[in-house]
Structure formats: C-alpha cells, structure tokens
Design a protein that fits this description.
The protein is mostly helical. The protein has one domain. The chain is built from four helices and no strands. The protein is elongated. 15% of the residues are buried.
C-alpha cells in the first residue's frame, strides 16, 4: 500500500507543471527533495532489516506462528525495497530532467 501511495505521489510530482513553466531552480529543488526522499526510504529499509529478528519475536508473542511472523516482516521489507526502487527511479528522472533543462533541450 505504501508503495502504491508513493508511486502515485511521484507521478503527480513529476507530472505537475508550474503555471509559468519549469525553471532550473525549481528543478534543482525537486532533485534535492528526491535525494532526501531516497535517503529517508533507504534508512527505513535498513531499520526494517535491522529489527527483523525483534519484530518476528514480537509477532510471535502476539500469537502468530514463526512462519506467519517471518512472512509478515519479510513482506514489509519487500514493500519498502519497492519504495526505495521507486525513489531511486524518481531521483534519476529528476536528475535527467535537470540536465536537459541546463543544456537547453526540452
């Protein structure tokens, strides 16, 4: 679900057009924001990976079988990895657009 929301957000952000047309300064801000987003999502992924054993144990304490607990936590990690890939793609596209804007080719 998080991946879907992020993907929609990225698409809306990438497709948004400023009333006066795009500017290099605005695009540089988008690149900075995309970089920050990517770093934040990578950190979340690392946190999920680091806490995997603890989270599995907590799920078991809540009554899940070990297999169910592992499946839930590994699924969350897979979803977050997808979010990271989407953020990487967004950053790449924002950087490419900035490069094109700086060279004057649109």
């Amino acid at each position: 679900m998080k991946a879907i929301v992020l993907t929609v957000f990225i698409l809306l952000t990438a497709c948004a057009k400023e009333p006066s047309g795009p500017s290099v300064t605005a695009q540089e801000a988008r690149v900075e924001r995309a970089t920050a987003d990517l770093n934040r999502e990578k950190q979340r992924l690392q946190t999920l990976r680091d806490s995997l054993v603890i989270k599995i144990g907590q799920n078991e304490q809540l009554g899940m079988t070990r297999k169910q607990a592992e499946a839930v936590e590994k699924s969350l990690i897979e979803v977050q990895a997808t979010v990271v890939r989407a953020a990487e793609t967004n950053l790449k596209h924002q950087q490419e657009l900035l490069a094109l804007m700086k060279t004057g080719h649109r």
